[in-house]
Every structure is written in C-alpha cells, then in structure tokens.
C-alpha cells in the first residue's frame, strides 16, 4: 500500500519539525538542563551577580482575605513549579507500577536494590564528614539521582548501549525518586499545621472518590489538586511536592474503551469516511466532520487520563520547569573567601557521598545479590556496565539541589552543598560517559562462543 504523506509547509520544515526532532531526542532535556545550570553559574560569578541574586528575591502574593501567601520568586519556583515536576514524577511512578518496569517484581528487584544501596551509602559517607551539629541535616542531599541527566548521558551513545542497561538505570532512577519523595515527606517537613493538613486530606479524599466514580476530566483534577490539595499542603508545613505526588496517584489509569473495542470502532468509522461523499474542496463535508470528531473522541477514550497528562506535561517539565529551576538554584557565587578557605565538610560530604557512596551502594549491593543468587543480573549487563550505571546514578543535580534548600536554613551551608552537588554531578557525567564507552568497547571485543 502506497504511503500518503501530509503536505509539508515551510513552517513545518523550518520550525515545527526541527523543534519536534530536538525535543524528541532522548538526550536533549539533559543538555538543556546542563546549559541552564552553566548560564546560572556564569551569571552568579559575573559583574551582574548582585542583580542575578536580587532578581530571584522579588516577592509576590496569592490568596484572598486573611488567607494570603507571600513568597519570593525563588520560593515560588521551589514550592510551586517543582510541585509540577513532582506531579509528573508521580504520574510516571504510577504508570511504571501499573504496567511498566515496576509492575513485575522479578524484573525490578535488582534495580530497586541498587537504588536502596545508592541511597544508604551516600547518607553514611556524608555523615562521616558531618557527624554532628547543624550540617548533619544535609545527609539526604547526596541520596538523589537526577533521572533526566543520567538518562541523557546514557542516550548520548544511542543504540550501542544494550537496552537492558537503559532499563536498569531507568528503574533505578524511578525507585530513587520514590525514595527522595519519602525522605522529603518524613525528614524535611517543617512544623505541621493540623487544620490545613486536615483540609488537604479532605481534598485528597475528593480526588480519590472522583477516581472511583469514573470522573476522567483532567481539568477537574487540576483545579481540585492545585487550588485544594497543593495549597492546603503548602499551608500545613508538609512540603507541597508531596501533595503533587499524591494528586498524581489519583489520576485514572484505565481507558474508557478497550483496545479491541477501539480497533473495531475505528475500522467502522474509517469505512464510513471512505464511503462518505467528498465535496471536491479542501474543506470536509458535515458528514466527514462528524466522522472525524468521532475518531478524535474515540482516540481520546482509548488513552488513559494518566498517560494523556504525562505526555502533555513532560515537555513542559523538561524544557521549561527544570531549566528555570536550574537557572534559579545552580547560580552559586564562588568568591575569594570560598577559594581561600579550606573546602567545607558539607561540600566534601556531598561530593564523596554522591561519587563514592552511589557507586559503592549501586555496584556493591547489586553484585552481592547477584553473587548470592538472590536475584539474577542480565547477561547483557557486564561489570563494566554496572560501574557505569553507578557513575551515572551519582548525578544528583535537580533533586540534590532541591533537597539542599530543604535541609539547611543557613545560606552558607546551602551554597557549600550546591558546590558539592555541581562538582560531583559534572564529574559523574564525564566519568559515566567514558565508563559506558569503555563497556561498549569491551563488549564488542568479547569473543563469540
């Protein structure tokens, strides 16, 4: 059957298609994130450093009557925009648990074990450098993995990387996200306002009930989730990102029409469209319009609201929210006092927690479980690939920068932690890239039995 391609307009060829190809590239989001961080660092250490930091301190308020929240732009980004990021994380987690890599415990056990090891050992190593005092609160900073950066580096090498390695790192990063959310919920939550928390629980109950009743309108979940659940959690003292994850888990994950039902109905509608009489113009007839609207309606019903939202919001998070977060949070001013003084224990704890802790935890626990035959590692994942995965898991960036803001009130400690995160993430990116290349080279030179 001859393939009929739609007409390509100049705007498609020169603008829309290049942008689509750029955004669909697996490594693009990591590159955009890295570029944003680099711009922030340059601005923070330029003659415009004062203006850069002052810009993020501009404040504005939302609310009505006596219920008004006033925060700086920096705080709104971390509490508001990052809630959208965590909402998408929640959507991804639910999808993976229902029908993805986390749905089969047998396939997920080793990556989950690796993620647990990659959280415990970084925290332990951090506490070796900061065993007491206010700096001890930063133990959660090196526990995080930045999924966009880690997968971005991995996908730079394309199809040469075995699919099993990509899956292992993806599941590890997803499990790591679950760990990060739990750490924020239980350890980095401020004083609790029980009244606001109760209001939040009521809105959460409404969302759960709506799901059970079959409400599929994503706008409804957005309004109740943002104006109700998110605001209530924001006022309660429980970090608002937790509300975002909880809201994501209430989004329906079942289609309104089965795959077989969609296939039968679509074939029927296509036959109807074929038999309908055209008007010999570029416009369609009323009959054709009705058929096309039915096709669109049934196509929407064949998709779950969960996947529709995730697909729609992922580019917004990857190419808008995360770069803005990086621009706001990665701008650490490295002045002469920082260079002249000894490297702080916070910086060392974060750096070695990410680099050494992640590699030891990921590689060590995975190898132990494999050797003890408690779980089997895919034959496609050699020891070199496993070390490379450990290196890529050491890229903390977004999550680590975010937890730095939650862990400390002292600005100096926050900056010291961020310096550790940025250096470790840059070093881990380079190390992980070359370890993957080495693993590819070794596997390609491996003799065939």
List keywords for this structure.
449 residues, Na+/H+ antiporter like fold, 2 domains, two-stranded antiparallel sheet, 72% helix, 3% strand
Report the count of strand segments: 2
**For the largest beta sheet, what order do the strands appear in spatially?**
1-2
Strand composition percent: under 5%
Major sheet details: 2 strands, antiparallel
Q: What's the order of the H and E elements?
A: HHHEEHHHHHHHHHHHHHHH
Shape: globular
**What is the CATH T-level topology of the largest domain?**
Na+/H+ antiporter like fold
CATH class of the largest domain: Mainly Alpha
Mean pLDDT metric: 82
Query: What distance lies between the first and last C-alpha atoms, to the nearest angstrom?
Result: 42 Å
Which CATH architecture of the largest domain?
A: Up-down Bundle
Query: In terms of structural class, how would the helical and strand content be classed?
Result: mainly alpha
Low-pLDDT regions: none
Q: How many structural domains?
A: 2
**Treating each run of at least 4 consecutive H or I residues as one helix, how many helices?**
18
Helical percent range? over 70%
Q: What is the name of the CATH superfamily of the largest domain?
A: Na+/H+ antiporter like domain
Radius of gyration: 24 Å
What is the element layout, followed by pairings?
Blueprint: H1 10-24, H2 28-44, H3 49-56, E1 59-64, E2 67-72, H4 73-99, H5 105-129, H6 147-155, H7 163-187, H8 194-213, H9 218-236, H10 240-249, H11 259-275, H12 286-302, H13 305-329, H14 336-340, H15 345-371, H16 383-393, H17 397-407, H18 411-444
Antiparallel strand pairs: 1-2
């Amino acid at each position: 059957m001859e393939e009929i391609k739609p007409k390509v307009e100049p705007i498609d060829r020169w603008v829309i298609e290049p942008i689509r190809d750029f955004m669909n590239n697996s490594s693009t989001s990591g590159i955009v994130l890295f570029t944003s961080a680099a711009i922030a660092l340059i601005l923070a250490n330029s003659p415009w450093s004062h203006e850069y930091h002052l810009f993020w301190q501009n404040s504005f308020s939302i609310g009505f009557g006596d219920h008004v929240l006033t925060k700086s732009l920096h705080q709104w980004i971390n509490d508001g925009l990052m809630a959208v990021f965590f909402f998408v994380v929640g959507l991804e987690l639910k999808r993976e648990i229902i029908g993805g890599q986390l749905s089969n415990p047998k396939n997920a056990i080793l990556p989950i074990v690796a993620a647990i090891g990659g959280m415990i050992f970084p925290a332990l190593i951090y506490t070796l450098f900061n065993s007491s005092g206010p700096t001890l609160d930063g133990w959660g900073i090196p526990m995080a993995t930045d999924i966009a950066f880690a997968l971005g580096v991995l996908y730079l090498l394309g199809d040469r990387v075995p699919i099993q390695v990509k899956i292992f790192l993806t599941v590890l990063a997803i499990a790591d996200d679950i760990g990060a959310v739990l750490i924020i919920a239980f350890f980095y939550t401020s004083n609790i306002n029980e009244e606001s928390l109760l209001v939040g629980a009521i809105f959460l109950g409404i969302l759960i009930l709506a799901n059970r009743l079959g409400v599929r309108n994503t706008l409804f979940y957005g309004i109740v989730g943002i104006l109700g659940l998110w605001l209530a959690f924001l006022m309660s003292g429980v970090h608002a990102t937790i509300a975002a994850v909880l809201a994501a888990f209430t989004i329906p994950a079942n289609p309104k029409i089965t795959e077989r039902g969609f296939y039968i109905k679509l074939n029927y509608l296509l036959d109807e469209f074929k038999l309908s009489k055209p008007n010999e113009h570029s416009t369609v007839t009323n009959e054709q319009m009705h058929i096309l609207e039915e096709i669109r309606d049934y196509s929407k019903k064949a998709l779950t609201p969960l996947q529709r939202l995730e697909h729609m919001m992922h580019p917004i998070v990857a190419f808008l929210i995360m770069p803005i977060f990086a621009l706001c949070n990665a701008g650490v001013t490295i002045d002469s006092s920082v260079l002249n003084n000894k490297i702080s224990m916070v910086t060392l704890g974060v750096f070695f927690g990410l680099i050494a802790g992640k590699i030891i935890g990921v590689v060590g626990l995975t190898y132990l479980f494999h050797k003890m035959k408690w779980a089997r590692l895919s034959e496609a994942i050699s020891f070199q690939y496993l070390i490379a995965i450990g290196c890529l898991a050491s890229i903390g960036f977004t999550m680590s920068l975010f937890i730095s803001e939650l862990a400390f009130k002292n600005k100096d400690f926050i900056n010291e932690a961020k310096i550790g995160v940025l250096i470790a993430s840059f070093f881990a990116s380079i190390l992980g890239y070359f370890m993957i290349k080495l693993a590819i080279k070794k596997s390609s030179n491996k003799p065939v039995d």
